[in-house]
Amino acid sequence: MRKIVIAGNWKMYKTNQEAVKVLSELKDLVKDVKNVEIVIGAPFTTLSDAVKAVEGSNIKIAAENVYPKQEGAFTGEISPNMLKAIGVSHVIIGHSERREIFKETDEFINEKVKAVLENGLVPIFCIGEKLEERESGKTLEINSNQVRKGLKDLTKEEAKKVIVAYEPVWAIGTGKTATPEMAQETHKEIRKVLADMFGQEVANEMTIQYGGSMKPENAKDLLGQADIDGGLVGGASLKADSFFEIIKAAK
Ligand code: PEP
Description:
alpha/beta, binds phosphoenolpyruvate
């Protein structure tokens, strides 16, 4: 059985106080949720208090980025072991905003995935095509390349721990969502690539989330698809009640 994971990505939203408030509300709402892993990706400044705010609950906390070294002269960066030390369990890696705005390459993303796994954290590894790539028929090629390069040289055991988040870039923050059929088709192809890299058994166990304007109104249809094993949610994760609606749709 694949794990169903609903993860929020708060991006650069919320002060520490705001984060703790929403997490306290969410903690209450999700207390009876079983069979869905719940993760919130929050800004670095909130992480320590976020972990404390969800203590004893079924919510896990993710960082939204990491630097792939243990320590050193890397001014302004945060290492996987620093995250681990405060109780963070997941790290969002290779989000399209980081690929686009911060020019992160597949090779750098691969270093991050490995560093995170070596420290016992779970990578939420993001991939996805841009609109012009979809329109020119390159969706599969782009996603396949990102998977092959981003998860290069992982062992089967490591691969099993990775959460893949398929996020068509044209659907992120735009209100445009891939239709459930469109998303399913790409998820199925991504799983084929994973099977080619790590074997069918491993691929069958790997969680592949959909991300891109997932909201309470469309979550059930998307999450009802055979190869969609959860969601990475931006805008609709900022409020506890809308995020909870999506979690309920996954149950
Ligand atoms: C995201 O930030 O990964 C995302 C999918 O955003 P949104 O849900 O707002 O499109």
